[in-house]
Sequence to fold (407 residues):
Amino acid sequence: MSERGHAIRPARFAQPEHTVIVGTGVAGATAALTLRNEGYRGRITLVGADPEAPYRRPPLSKEVLRGTVKSERIRLKPDAFWSENAIELRTGTSVTALDTDAATAALADGTVLGYRNLVLATGGSPRRLREAAGVPGVHHLRSLRSATALAAALAGRDPVTVIGAGLVGLEIAASARALGCDVSVLEAADRPMSRVLPAWLADPLNTLHWDRGVEIHTGVTVVRIEHHTRRGGYTVSASDGRTWTAATVVAAVGTVPETSLAEAAGLLVSDGIVVDEYGRTSASGVFAAGDAANLPDTLHGGRHRGEHWNEAMEQGAAVAKTIAGTLTPYPRLPWSWSDQHGVTIQVCGRPDLGTEHEVRGDPEARDASVVFRRLGRVVGVVAMNRPAEFRALRQLALAATQPSSTS
Ligand SMILES: Cc1cc2nc3c(=O)[nH]c(=O)nc-3n(C[C@H](O)[C@H](O)[C@H](O)COP(=O)(O)OP(=O)(O)OC[C@H]3O[C@@H](n4cnc5c(N)ncnc54)[C@H](O)[C@@H]3O)c2cc1C
Fold:
């Protein structure tokens, strides 16, 4: 079977030319609009459980929490865009079941949609802490609705405990501090952002948080979260006996890919919906993109599941091009950013694979870029407050992904 034959549902199963996209996050929304940009003339239905029209998630932990942007301003497109481009947007309803033999998707509102191609862009949901089970009011941040609820809780400027010192946890901490809350961050690892940055680059950011009044406590294993019904508030206890009291507790301990629909349909799932480099799942005509997809790392070997905005967007665009007729692989070089206390941190590739590095500027002053190399080849770039330099170095890293390159 040709590459194209595998990507596009074979004729004997063919439904009328109709692409159903599950999930109105950036991967799904970008897939829909790219299909139209590519001249796709079939029907497009974009279905999302979220009641809102597609919006940008990154501002949720930043401007939305700080109250510096209105929710209408984070929409991906003006409301009229979808109908003007003949994209049927169905928000506030889930796809509850897929039948990959009949090529149909059943919606919670009772509709059954036949499809020629289907894109699972179901994203992820916040990982739940076992210690938070049954404790009322512990916040998790993923949707606009959850951001609005957290913003309301922070408005009182009462103390906050954030569990998790990854990028999202630290952005929440910085925003809460900017609002005037006392903030404690509890992290199980021995340093913040341990999945993203080497210790020597995370240290200056750790210092920045402390300087701005955010207390980051590392090596903390949370064993209990207690809600005080009468007086309100919470006590968070660690295994070593330390405790923190706060009016608000936020758990920001990572993302779990949303794979239940794929699993129930019998698709291959392993830390995400398993796809090939073109986003194709184990079922013919069914693709997956964004945080939900687990794809081969064609640069470094093994497999990879991203949890970053640009990666999800670029995968949504690639899958749409493939459906529209141009077989397009997923980009091989993920990149992301984070904003904390006015410092923009940008990361691309795999700095963790670097065996040597070259620093420009001063990491201690949070004004630097670092190129990581392995056997002479660029494998990653980190920049702090150097967006123009990051753009140039990312091109260098992109060039190094070409097979013949030694840069
Ligand atoms: C608070 C926050 C801040 C972030 N900041 C940054 C940042 O600064 N930089 C960065 O690079 N990345 C950031 N990210 C990560 C980035 O936003 C995500 O990687 C990206 O949004 C993933 O897009 P997605 O379309 O794959 O999934 P999602 O955005 O999760 O969208 C998936 C959608 O699918 C829907 N869905 C799931 N199942 C079904 C179903 N069965 N039927 C219908 N709909 C369904 C969900 O409701 C959801 O709306 C941030 C994430 C969060 C939560």
Notes: The chain has a mean pLDDT of 93. Residues 309-324 form the longest helix (16 residues).
